[in-house]
TrEMBL record:
<dbReference type="InterPro" id="IPR013719">
    <property type="entry name" value="RTT106/SPT16-like_middle_dom"/>
</dbReference>
<dbReference type="InterPro" id="IPR048993">
    <property type="entry name" value="SSRP1-like_PH1"/>
</dbReference>
<dbReference type="Pfam" id="PF21103">
    <property type="entry name" value="PH1_SSRP1-like"/>
</dbReference>
<dbReference type="Pfam" id="PF08512">
    <property type="entry name" value="Rttp106-like_middle"/>
</dbReference>
<protein>
    <submittedName>
        <fullName>POB3</fullName>
    </submittedName>
</protein>
<dbReference type="InterPro" id="IPR050454">
    <property type="entry name" value="RTT106/SSRP1_HistChap/FACT"/>
</dbReference>
<dbReference type="GO" id="GO:0031491">
    <property type="term" value="F:nucleosome binding"/>
</dbReference>
<feature type="domain" description="Histone chaperone RTT106/FACT complex subunit SPT16-like middle">
    <location>
        <begin position="75"/>
        <end position="165"/>
    </location>
</feature>
<dbReference type="GO" id="GO:0035101">
    <property type="term" value="C:FACT complex"/>
</dbReference>
<feature type="region of interest" description="Disordered">
    <location>
        <begin position="166"/>
        <end position="195"/>
    </location>
</feature>
<dbReference type="GO" id="GO:0042393">
    <property type="term" value="F:histone binding"/>
</dbReference>
<dbReference type="InterPro" id="IPR011993">
    <property type="entry name" value="PH-like_dom_sf"/>
</dbReference>
Amino acid sequence: MYLTTEGETYLVVKLDNPILQGQTRYDSMVFSLDKKDIEVSAKDKRLKDYYTGTQDEVVVEIFEKMLGVEARQAMFFVKCNNKVNNGVLFFMESGLQFLTKNMYVEKRNIVLVEFQRLNVPAIQARTFDMSVHADKVYTFSSISKDVFPSIEDYFGKDGIKMVSEVMEEYSEPSNEESEDDSNLSDIIADTDEDD
C-alpha cells in the first residue's frame, strides 16, 4: 500500500509469513518515505538500470517491479487517535489502515460501526469518536466532524451497519415552579406562621 498525507508518505508491505519478535507478530512492514530527490542504480533484470526522482516515487516503483503488483492507495484519510497513539486512519478499498501504530482492519470482517459524540453541537465538540467492531473493537477518537459524510458513504456502500450514540440534550431548568416546589413553599410559610 502506498499511503500519502499532506506531509508524509508510507509504504506498507504485507508479509505472507509474519515476523515474530517475542510474543508479537508483525504481518506487515511500514516504511516512512521522504520527498527528497534520489538516484538509484540497479542490477536486477526486472528493474531499469537507473532511477531518479523523489524517494517515495522511486522506492514504490522498485517495490512494484520486484513484487509484480501495483501498490494500492487510500480513497481518503483522517487524522485521529487510537488509544494514546496519534496517527492517520486510511480508508482503503479493502479495509482500514491506521498508522503510526501499524494496525489493519479488513472491511469484510467489520460487522458494526458505532459513532459517539456525533450529535453534540459543533460549539461543544468539533470531533467525534468511532468504534469499529470486527474481530475485536477498534476505537478511533478525535475525528473531525467535517469528514463524517465521507466515512458514512464508505461504510454505507458496502451495507455495513452503522449506529450513532444518542445524546440527550441538556435543558435549562424552567422558570416555572414545579408542584413539589410550591408545596415546599407552603410548608415553609405554615412553619413561619406557627412561630
